[in-house]
C-alpha cells in the first residue's frame, strides 16, 4: 500500500473514550479539492452542518472524532463546533473555512470541546505517514479497522486510499458511517463529483445493516492533484478503481455489522426500473423476518415474497428465487422479478441476539 501523495495522518486519545484512540486528523500538505456526501437525515450533527458550509473551499485538514456524535446536545453546539475548527485552523495557520470535521458516537451528549482543543498540539505533533492510528481513531462499535487501497496505472502511477467506520445504524442514502477517500489523481471537481457519486451509489448506498439512518453519515473524497489524467481512458480507469475501493469499504462494514454472523448478497433482476430493483432489494434486506430466517439458516422464501409486496411490487406465482447454502457465512440470494430488464445488488447482514445486546447496552 502506497499513501497518495500529499497526505499525512494522525490519531490520538483526547479523552472522549478511555484508553482508545478517539481523535484523528488527515493533514493535507497543500490545500486540496474535496467533494462530500452527507446523510439525508433531516436532523443532522453540528459537524455535518459545519462541513457542508466549508466543503466548497480548498481544504487543509479533516478532523474526525469517535465517542461523541456532536449532535442535538445543546443550543451552543454549532458555535462550539465552529470554535473547535477555528482553533485547529489557527494552529495550522489557515482559515476556519479550510477545515472539515466529522463525528461519530452517541447522540445527545455535549461535546467537551476543551478536551479536543487542548489535544490539538499533541495531534499535530503526532502527524505521520502511516494511516494506521487515524483508521483506529474513527472506530466505535467496529471490531476491525476498515482500509482499502488501489493503484492506478496511469502515465504516472496514481493511488486511492480509503477509510471507513460503521457497524450499526447503517442504512442507505449515506448508510452511523464515515468514509474518507484520498487520491493523488487530478480531476476537474465536477467530474470527480460525478465519478464519486456513481461509486457511492453502488457501494455505501447499496448496503444496510439495520435500516436505521444516522444523523452523521459523511463521505469525503479528497484529491491532492499530484498525478495528472491525460485522456478519457485514464478517467474511466480511475472511476473503476474508485468503485472497487468504495465497494470494498462498504462490504467491510456489512461483514462487521453489529452481531452479524452472515454476509448476504441480494441480487435482484427483472425489474421495470433500477429504482424498482433497488426498492425490492432493500425491502428484503431490511426485513427483520428475513434477517432472522437467515440467522437461523431457514430457507423461508415466503419472507422474500412478503418483502417484495411490501415494496409495492406485484409478482406472479413461481418467480425464481434461489439461495446458496444458508449454513455458510457468505450467502447469496437471487431473485428474478420477471417484470423488466433492470437489476441491482444490495448487501446486508443477518439479525442476531448479539445485535440486540449491543444496542440495548449502547449509551
Largest sheet: 8 strands, mixed
Kindly state the number of beta strands: 13
- Written as H for each helix and E for each strand, in order along the chain, the element string is EEHEHEHHEEEHEEHEHHHEEEH
Output mean pLDDT. Answer: 94
Keywords:
alpha/beta, 5-stranded mixed sheet, 2 domains, 8-stranded mixed sheet, L-amino peptidase D-ALA esterase/amidase, Ubiquitin-like (UB roll)
Describe the protein in words.
The chain has about 375 residues and is an alpha/beta fold. The protein folds into two domains: about 5-255, L-amino peptidase D-ALA esterase/amidase (4-Layer Sandwich), CATH 3.60.70; about 265-360, ArgJ beta chain, C-terminal domain (Ubiquitin-like (UB roll)), CATH 3.10.20. The chain has helices spanning about 45-55, 75-90, 115-125, 130-135, 190-200, 230-255, 275-285, 290-295, 300-310, 355-360, and strands at about 5-10, 25-40, 60-65, 100-105, 145-155, 155-165, 180-185, 205-210, 220-230, 265-270, 320-325, 330-335, 340-350. The strands form two sheets. Strands 1, 2, 3, 4, 5, 6, 7 and 9 form an eight-stranded mixed sheet that branches. Helix 1 packs across helix 2 and helix 7 (about 275-285) crosses helix 9. The radius of gyration is 21 Å and the shape is globular. The model has no long low-confidence stretch (mean pLDDT about 95).
Gist?
With 363 residues, the protein is an alpha/beta fold.
List the helices and strands and how they pair.
Blueprint: E1 7-12, E2 23-38, H1 46-54, E3 59-66, H2 77-92, E4 99-104, H3 113-125, H4 132-137, E5 146-153, E6 157-165, E7 178-186, H5 189-201, E8 207-208, E9 218-228, H6 232-255, E10 263-271, H7 274-285, H8 288-295, H9 302-310, E11 321-323, E12 330-336, E13 342-349, H10 353-360
Parallel strand pairs: 3-4, 7-9, 8-13, 10-12
Antiparallel strand pairs: 1-2, 2-3, 2-9, 5-6, 6-7, 10-13, 11-12
Helix pairs in contact: 1-2, 2-3, 5-6, 7-9
Amino acid at each position: 500500500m502506497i499513501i497518495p501523495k500529499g497526505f499525512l495522518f494522525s490519531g490520538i486519545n483526547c479523552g472522549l473514550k478511555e484508553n482508545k484512540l478517539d481523535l484523528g486528523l488527515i493533514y493535507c500538505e497543500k490545500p486540496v479539492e474535496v467533494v462530500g456526501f452527507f446523510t439525508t437525515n433531516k436532523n443532522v450533527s453540528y459537524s455535518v452542518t459545519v462541513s457542508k458550509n466549508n466543503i466548497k473551499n480548498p481544504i487543509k485538514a479533516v478532523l474526525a472524532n469517535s465517542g461523541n456524535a456532536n449532535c442535538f446536545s445543546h443550543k451552543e453546539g454549532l458555535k462550539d463546533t465552529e470554535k473547535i475548527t477555528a482553533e485547529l485552523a489557527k494552529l495550522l495557520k489557515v482559515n476556519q473555512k479550510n477545515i472539515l470535521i466529522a463525528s461519530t458516537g452517541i447522540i445527545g451528549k455535549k461535546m467537551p470541546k476543551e478536551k479536543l482543543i487542548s489535544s490539538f498540539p499533541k495531534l499535530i505533533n503526532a502527524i505521520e505517514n502511516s494511516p494506521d492510528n487515524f483508521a483506529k481513531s474513527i472506530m466505535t462499535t467496529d471490531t476491525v479497522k476498515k482500509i482499502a487501497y488501489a493503484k492506478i496505472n496511469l502515465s504516472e502511477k496514481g493511488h486511492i486510499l480509503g477509510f471507513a467506520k460503521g457497524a450499526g445504524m447503517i442504512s442507505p442514502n449515506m448508510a452511523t458511517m464515515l468514509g474518507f477517500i484520498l487520491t493523488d489523481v487530478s480531476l476537474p471537481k465536477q467530474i470527480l463529483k460525478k465519478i464519486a457519486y456513481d461509486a457511492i451509489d453502488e457501494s455505501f448506498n447499496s448496503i444496510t445493516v439495520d435500516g436505521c439512518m444516522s444523523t452523521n453519515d459523511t463521505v469525503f473524497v479528497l484529491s491532492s492533484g499530484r498525478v495528472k489524467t491525460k485522456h478519457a481512458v485514464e478517467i474511466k480507469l480511475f472511476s473503476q478503481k474508485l468503485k472497487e475501493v468504495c465497494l470494498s469499504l462498504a462490504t467491510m462494514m456489512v461483514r462487521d455489522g453489529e452481531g452479524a454472523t452472515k454476509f448476504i448478497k441480494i441480487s435482484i433482476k427483472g425489474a421495470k426500473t433500477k429504482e424498482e430493483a433497488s426498492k425490492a432489494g432493500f425491502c428484503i434486506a431490511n426485513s427483520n423476518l428475513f434477517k432472522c430466517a437467515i440467522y437461523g439458516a431457514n430457507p423461508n422464501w415466503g419472507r422474500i415474497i412478503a418483502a417484495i409486496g411490501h415494496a409495492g411490487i406485484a409478482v406472479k406465482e413461481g418467480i425464481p428465487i434461489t439461495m446458496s447454502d444458508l449454513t455458510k457465512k457468505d450467502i447469496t440470494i437471487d431473485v428474478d422479478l420477471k417484470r423488466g430488464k433492470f437489476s441491482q445488488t444490495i448487501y446486508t447482514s443477518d439479525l442476531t441476539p448479539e445485535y440486540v445486546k449491543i444496542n440495548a447496552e449502547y449509551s
